[in-house]
Amino acid sequence: MIHFDQVTKQYKEDASAIKDITFSVEPGEFISIVGHSGAGKTTLIKMLLAEERPTDGAVFFESANIHTLHKRAINDFRRRVGVVFQDFRLLPYKTVYENIAFAMEAAGKPDEDIQADVPYVLEMVDLLDKSESFPHELSGGEKQRVAIARAIVNQPDIIVADEPTGNLDPLNTYDIVQILKKINDIGTTIILTTHNKGIIDSLEKRVITMEKGKIVRDDKKGRYVL
Amino acid sequence: MFITATRRIIRSGAHNFWRNGFVSLASTLVMAIALFVIGSMIFLGTLLDTSLEAIKDKVDVNVYFVADAAEDDVLALKAQVEALPEVETVRHQTKEEALEEFLVRRANDTFTIQALEELGENPLGPVLSIKAKDPSQYVGIAEFLQGDNLLSDGGEEVVDTVNYFENKVAIDKLTQIVAAVEMTGLAIVIILTVIAVIITFNTIRLAIYISREEISVMRLVGASISYIRGPFIITGIIYGVVGALVTLAVFYPITYWLGSDTEAFFVGFNLFRYYTENFGYIFAVILGAGVLIGALSSYLAVMKYLKR
Q: Is B217 in contact with A106 (Cβ distance < 8 A)?
């Protein structure tokens, strides 16, 4: 469903952030992308979210090249992809409930759906009692669970999680990974970047290893090898 | 769908205003100051206008007829002058009225009054007082009076003097001063208004700069451009409305306090009375300016972060 075709991104003339990346993601897969800082993981994610354009090559979602889509089509595409970041990126002046409702409002969902779905996903991440809290009143793990709830509320085809556990302690990290696994179990494709060895080894799923902007390994049931 | 989106945008904009209290306070305060400047400019302009009007009103050209001028000749000239496009009004004073006014004016001057009594008859002629629409037009009117045979009737002189030619220097000077004051006043009004608008614009831009991360998150969630921009514009409009209400409230005691002073200084112009009598107009201008500045500033500021 996602295909990177010889994608290269150069920020400066002589240095490529990623170089000649080609790989495909099948529906329902749980893919982990690992690599040191600066290996190109975040650049790869930005290409996938149409935040930046590749210097060369193309990224396909289903059969559409996402970098040639119109604005409206990009919005539609983004509503089919849920995103989770290391720094949570919640809207600071909205409550937990409103943060999640915002994603649905942006997609033009009616009020009845919002009133039904938001409590449902909040329960899924075990935060129903915090729905009226503001982000600054939450712990890091709770913020990340809100971010995940926001990412899944529109029932996306794919969840992209860019180092979602980077700012969390081991217990919260374990929780987040369990939630992601649960989401994957109901059929959602997951793309996870991380450098947490423990997560990768416990997942036993496909692992793509990056180094200096290139893919150096792509293992079906990978382990963390660096 | 459209109604739902509008309702959500308005609610979200109101939340932004309320929950981002400190930024809203600062922006509203700057907005209120800018609107205060704009409101003061309205007052200053009106003050200037009424003062200049009062001064202009004091200027006129008088045509003094000879004592035995026929009433018909006077009326004929009056009709001709009234037909000129530059002329605002022509006041006709008969011989008798002229004498009456003269006596009132010289009531304490016993010597002159005695001399008049001794004369036994009314030595004064009828007078036409001509007011032009603009002081600069007196030249043309005076030239018209001078030209042709207007001032004489079949070789017989009916007009004694036209006082424009005597007051020429004073009238010219006044015309210049009036023009200069009008120009300077307009320049000051424009400059101060522009400064006020720019400062408000920049403050709102800073307020939105704080939210640039938020804007990028909204984009990643798949919100459309108008759905992201809408709440910011609503918040900007709220800055404008609240700022306008604050300004209008502050003007009340200030004009009340200045009212009697302005009445004494600028003959007959009471600032407080002006404010209360024209409240609807001032309300509309200040509120309109606030809403426009707030909405436009927000629109332009958000555009910057949506383009990237």
A: no
Task: Give the three-class secondary structure for B31.
Answer: helix
DSSP A69: -
For B246-290, the pLDDT digits (tens) are 999 999 999 999 888 887 777 678 888 889 999 999 999 999 999
pTM over 0.80, yes/no: no
Which residues are paired to B286 by β-bridges?
Answer: none
* Cα distance from N-terminal residue to C-terminal residue, chain A: 28
Compute the 3-state secondary structure of chain A and give helix, strand, coil in percent, each to the nearest 5: 40, 25, 35
Is ipTM beyond 0.85? no
Under a CB-based contact definition with an 8 Å cutoff, are residues B162 and B145 in contact? Answer: yes
- B55 contacts B174 by C-beta, under 8 angstroms: yes
Question: CATH fold of A2-14+28-219, please?
Answer: Rossmann fold (3.40.50)
Nearest residue in chain A measured CA to CA from B17: A93
Verify whether the Cβ–Cβ distance A111 to B4 is below 8 Å: yes
Which chain B residue has the Cα nearest residue A111?
B4
Location of structure tokens 């409002």 = A105
* Residue B26, C-beta contacts closer than 8 angstroms, at least 6 positions apart: B203, B207
- Mind listing the pLDDT tens digit for each residue in B172-217? 787 788 788 888 888 988 998 899 889 999 999 998 898 888 898 8
Q: What is the average pLDDT across A118-144?
A: 94
State which CATH number among 3.40.1260.10, 3.30.70.3040, 3.40.30.10, 3.40.50.1820 fits the domain covering B59-165.
Answer: 3.30.70.3040
Give the span between the Cα atoms of B101 and A151, in whole angstroms: 92
